[in-house]
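User: I'll paste a sequence; please echo it back and then give the predicted structure.

Assistant: Echoing your sequence first, then the prediction.
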Amino acid sequence: MRTLLAFCLCLLAATSGHAVAQEKVHFASLDGDTTSPATQLDGYLFHPRATTDAVPAVVFLHGCGGLISSISHRIVSRERDWADKLNGMGIAVLMVDSLTPRGSGQICSPSSFKPGLYKRRPADAYGALAYLQSLPSIRGDRIGLLGWSNGGGATLFAVDRTNPLRRTLAGPDFAAAIAFYPGSCSEQRLGADWASAIPLLILVGERDVWTPATPCLQVAERATARGAPVDFHAYPGAYHDFDWPGAKRRELKAYTTRAGVVPITGEDPAAHADAVQRVEAFFSRHLLH
């Protein structure tokens, strides 16, 4: 009886939520050039429950710590949680692993950060877009982009109006994008003329010392003044990773920046709950209607 009960509980856990079991896929980044071939990337595709219709999709770009936990060797819980929420809306998710195929672990500390790898991540996003557009189960004109921290910075570079990758697309561009507490969100890093080519939502914590809110707000306001469709929202009291389910407040001394700043991370339940509403409303407006 105990064995049967344990089996039933495992079966329930495996079938709970909205996502079908993930499918590991492989596709090319658009980072190739005349001197080096394109990187073959790993991805994890999560489809919503079976439907005969093609569905919208969202590409995920992980943070500097990578997609796969070095402790559990599973996809990190933040990305799994968001995939389940989007699958529940009828949206497929493709998580891009930018680090493992390039033989890298985390790139969060000054000593481990790889500028060349970071520079390639927008090309990973567009490689994922092209791959999804090749699938008959996906609506090629309804694909979004969502990135966190390092991946959020890559998102900002990807959607820049001047990004040359956008001129090479065989199909439609991303329909919309979201950046959570994005790296590089300052005019110093993005350039004074940066502006998003597509609807973009930026969500940050006001107490985030790793990717500060103030320079990011300035970028958003100036882009909006130039007619870019950018929406910015900051959460008072929230730190970095405020949407990471169950994450306790931590000071990451191992990732102290060159300026001597010790990053602080942790979930803010109120900010997390509000972000869920904003993300669902944003993607519903741009991907489902």
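The CA atoms of residues 62 and 138 lie 21 Å apart. Residues 22-27+39-288 form a domain with the Rossmann fold fold (CATH 3.40.50.1820).
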